[in-house]
């Protein structure tokens, strides 16, 4: 089955599994490439792959399409770079849970049903449980701050992705967007200074990360955004913390505290409740 033929809700769920598996692999090469070097390798290789697959006709792209693809791509680049920098300081599950605050705020701001506020509040309580409220907290504040910043750009990515897919083909939008995302990731990698550590083995791992964390999930998400509202997309993406925590545990041996697992459980429960509510009250999702 082609990626574009996968129904929107399964496409988003498959995207979550893919991107978190890729993130776990990426964190494993941080000691060699650094966070910025790893995200640069991922984004640049993803851009090359998708440009080869979709072969966008640059001459046929209108100025307005260039404009929105560029804004979308820059947001994508900042989102990924800040997230990987946070990942170098805090566990994968915790980073994704904090990052989710962005889509959560988006869900609240666009809500029209009282029940949706309940699910959003449940997720907010979960996030509040692991916030570093006291000075002796063992959570890295810079890492947490970077994860929250990544979340803000995640919300922007959702909005801009929904906009740009209405203006152009989703495959073209992602491939062109990644060109602009590279303009953010590459300078950060040059400043960090680890690009010279690329070896054949690292290159192959980078190709796998590019496929799992960018090429496959972004294509799935952009296609899904054509058929489901931005708020519904945000609710489904709240499953990210659970997937991230499990991938961190299995692949990186990152053990979370009971409080952190409670946080993730609350976020997943909020996501499940919201999705079930949507399925009963709306026919706009083609599953």
Helicity range of the residues? over 70%
- Tell how many strands the DSSP assignment holds: 0
Choose one word for the global shape. globular
Question: How large is the count of helical segments?
Answer: 12
- Rg is 18 Å
Q: If you average the pLDDT, what whole number results? A: 84
Domain count: the total is 1
Main β-sheet description: none
Keywords: Membrane, Transmembrane, Transmembrane helix
Protein name: DMT family transporter
Subcellular location: Membrane
Family: Belongs to the EamA transporter family.
Overview of the molecule:
There is one protein chain. The protein has 287 residues and is an all-alpha fold. It has one domain. The chain is built from 12 helices and no strands. The chain starts with 7 loop residues before the first helix and ends in a 6-residue tail after the last helix. The relative contact order is 0.23. It comes from Pedobacter chitinilyticus. Residues 142-271 form the EamA domain. One of its GO terms (cellular component) is membrane. This is DMT family transporter.
